[in-house]
Amino acid sequence: MKKFLLLGSLFFISLMNAQKNVYESNRFDELSADHQVLGIIPFFTHLDLEEDLTKGQLKRLEEKEGYAVQNALETYFGLGKKKKKFTVDFQNIKNTNAILAQEKINYDNIDTYTIHDLCEILKVDAIVSGNMDLNILLSNGVPTEFSFLDYLIGNADYGRIGIKISDGKTGKLLWKYENKINKKSGKNTYELIDKMMKKLIRQFPYDKERINPKKGA
Questions:
Q1: pLDDT grade, residue 152 (50/70/90)?
Q2: Spatial CB neighbours of 108, under 8 Å, sequence gap ≥ 6
Q3: How far apart are CA 78 and CA 57, in angstroms?
Q4: Reduced to 3 states, what is the DSSP secondary structure of residue 160?
Q5: pLDDT at 50
Q6: Is the distance from CB of 20 to CB of 214 less than 8 angstroms?
Q7: What is the DSSP string of 23-53?
Q8: pLDDT tens, 162-201?
């Protein structure tokens, strides 16, 4: 019984921490009123690995991690649509990446384009993007051997992730979530995104059944 109470308390604490890390613009309803389709782009990733790698090797690994998050988010939203109703659709990332490639936009230069530019090119209403700082290759999976104490206190941090949504017409930040990544976050990219979004779903601004969080300035 004590164990269940402890786990329940820890879940409540993690939920409260998630709420603290969520920002929503006080203009969200106004700016998103006409949103129908969102585009998901690869996440910008910074790796700090112990391995001795060339700049080229490191860049390729960072790109791999960035596309892994893009894939994981599409998977989550695709599966989620069967269970929950969102007020928007999400562009197929194969189409997203193909359109970007046609415009000669790639992982190395996408940050030179504004949100407004990207939305016009992709013909979407807003962009889902973000960044990660990692000291491990999350897409390859993380070590699962750890003690119960490690699980409780969140030892072995692997970095941080930030996910944001920006309006296409104005380029303004509409919603943002940031959190650390550790052994409790999931054993790979897909599990990380799945667990993170499930924890946030009531605060995800396009969820029809969400409980409105306190909006930021």
A1: low
A2: 59
A3: 32
A4: strand
A5: 80
A6: no
A7: EE-TTHHHHTTT--EEEE-PPEEEE--SS--
A8: 999 999 999 999 999 999 888 778 888 888 898 888 888 7
pLDDT at 70 over 80: yes
Residue type, 133: D
- Tokens of residue 122, six digits: 């992709």
- Taking only the tens place, the pLDDT of each residue in 32-66 is 999 999 999 999 999 988 888 889 999 999 999 99
Is residue 75 within 8 A of residue 93, CB to CB? The reply is: no
Structure tokens at 7: 């786990």
- CA-based R_g, the chain, Å: 18
Contact yes or no for 100/122 (Cβ under 8 A): yes
Look up the pTM and report it: 0.81
Q: Which helix (H) or strand (E) holds 206?
A: none
Distance CA 24, CA 22 (A): 7
The residue with tokens 């790639």 is 106
Residue 83 confidence (pLDDT): 59
Give the helix/strand (H/E) hosting 161: strand 159-167
C-alpha to C-alpha distance for 41 and 127, rounded to whole angstroms: 7
